[in-house]
Amino acid sequence: MLTFRPLALSSLATVITATSLTVTASESTHLETLQVTGQPLPDQELTTSDLDKNIRSVYRLDLDAIDHPATRIEDLAFTIPGAQEGVQDSGFSTSMIIRGFPVTRPDYNGLPDIQRLFVRDLHTVESIEILSGPDAIMRGISSPGGSIRYIGKLPEFERKTTVGAQLSSYQPFQEHNGSRLTLDTTGPLGEQVAYRLVAASQDIDLQPNDTAAQRNHVLGGLTWQYHDLGEIRLESEYQENRQPYLFGTVITSEGEPIYNHYFHSPDQESKRQYKRHAVDWQQRWKPSEKNKFKVSGRYAHSEVKRQDELIGFWSRLDDETLSGYYTDVADDYQQTSWQLQLDWKHDGALSHRGLILLDQHTESFTLDRTQSLWDSSVTDPPWGDWAFFIKTDNPNFQPLSNDGLQPINAKDAFSTSWQDKNENTTQGLAAAYQIGTHWGQRNVDWTVGLRYNEFEQTYARNSDQLPVVMKADGLSWQWGFRLDVTENLQFRLAQGLSRQVAANGRRDKEGSFLPPEENLLSEISLAYAQANQKAQITVYHIEKGKIAEADQSVSNEEISDLGFTPFKLTGSQTSMGLEGIYQYSNEAFYFSALASYLETTDDRRGFEGSQFPGVAKSTGSLTAGLHKTLNNGAKLRPWYSLRYVGKRYADTANEVEADAFLLHSLGLSLTKENSRISLVVNNLLDEEYVSYLSSTDTVYQGDRRRIWLSMETTF
């Protein structure tokens, strides 16, 4: 276990790239970070404050204002500047790419969300904040592109219950192949206590192959306002997920994707259970009119139980066949996070804000895995009892079943069984300070910050003794500047250097731990806002350096003598791009347009300056809709959405290219009093396209045309 050092440290100074998806947005009830842009901290009351009336400092998705059906954040990637869907763990984990880099750690209500093969159901979420680039450093998040911050549904003292149902089908008038039920109820339990219960259950067949994806999620919470300026919140949630591994499709040696086939054995089964318990405490006080303080503490513990029995593939993008393996996995995962934070605000001719943050995040898991390996020397039938092949141009899964594979024998040269034990601990100490002034409705401010992180990993295979295998520490810094050029025009500039202590931490051949990766982040933006429209353009540059890779100069005999695989520092990765957003809304019409362009370069050994695989240079979206009030008072809302994703390379050599795609969607909703019914057609023209793509994972076909019918009522 690591110990904290008495250092005066800090972090966070940034500029974030957008505005809310709605023209009128309210400030979050949670003071999660000190934003570089100088927006006022939330009031010291425990209610939501609409303090940021013009331009927000983080890109916020208010889910109630989004018409497009979504059950996970990847469904909303087209609404976020610079974001693309990723592919990770065959869809078991949240996977987003921001500014060319994968998001490494989403947060939920201020603490790390469940990090092990978890997809958060968006029904438990009130809003989503995207912290791009420098702003994510405050929380010790290592992704240079940014992070995702979920603002969960909290207990309220106004009684309200909402129930909903969704049905979906691939074609009109066919039997439905998707259903979803939701419940959200909240209200008081006396004068000081409020509750909230949220539940969602879905059973949806994924196209093609009608692969079943089942998920049940329940969340319950209690809030006790023991004082006008103090509260304690308890929260527990449970999720059961039966979505199987999807091994996607492939791209042939001619560069053509094979559509309408998931490489998925019908006999495989995956069972995963998630539990999370959290407590949140906040106490505010106001010693004078000009000085306000808040101290807060958070704690969360999560457990993941996983039992997988599956048939998978050692797939490559240009193979004519896929070689197979059988795996039986039992996974016991534990996660504990806590955080202490002190915030201070002083109002006057010069405004001052500051925070000090102390946090720790620990992950430990025991992984029991039994797996049959592929013997590359066996190329003809019957391929043994533990290996098989699938022809990619005409896949046939019927003969494949787990029953046809022999039990694993650990003595078999081509099969193995093992147990991994692992514990990772990251802890940090951070502080940030902001000074600003204002004249009229115009503001100028400057923010500086530092953060110190320590990381340690212990690991062993088939042993209860866990030696330290990775260790690192690092100091990150940021600064940011904001100026209201006019009452409607705002200029922002930010820069930061984050050190990813969890990324390296490995030893070189001399036995010394390598220094952490470094990300140098810079961005500049200009934003314009009026009562009914907003626009923002952002330019950014990211350089990721000190990346470690296995030292190829060390022989297998030397590795055996060392007892570990040595690493060395290699080249760098660079991402630079331009993001733009425009939004307009009035009583009768709304319009939103997003566009992003980025250039990526990988200068690591063996990549020779290639572009990042799976990352499109250009993306964009357009959404337009009408507001119409009928004679009976009902509100009609038709809308249209267009999404574009440019060409992407499917390999690190940049030789195989995936085509760009363009998707059209339509929707219509009717709201009367407290009830709403909506009809959505996603992928109107039923386009075949590659949605998720990377060089290390398989390729995923995007969802074909799907028709959603949704009903919801509140009482």
Automatic annotation (TrEMBL):
A motif (TonB box) lies at residues 33-39. Belongs to the TonB-dependent receptor family. Residues 1-25 form the signal peptide. SUPFAM superfamilies: Porins. The lineage of its organism: Bacteria, Pseudomonadati, Pseudomonadota, Gammaproteobacteria, Oceanospirillales. It is found in: Cell outer membrane. It is a multi-pass membrane protein. Keywords: Cell outer membrane, Ion transport, Iron, Iron transport, Membrane, Signal, TonB box, Transmembrane, Transmembrane beta strand, Transport. GO terms for molecular function: siderophore uptake transmembrane transporter activity. GO terms for cellular component: cell outer membrane. Residues 58-146 form the TonB-dependent receptor plug domain. InterPro entries: Beta-barrel_TonB_sf, Plug_dom, Plug_dom_sf, TonB-dep_rcpt-like, TonB_box_CS. It holds the Pfam family Plug. This is Iron complex outermembrane recepter protein.
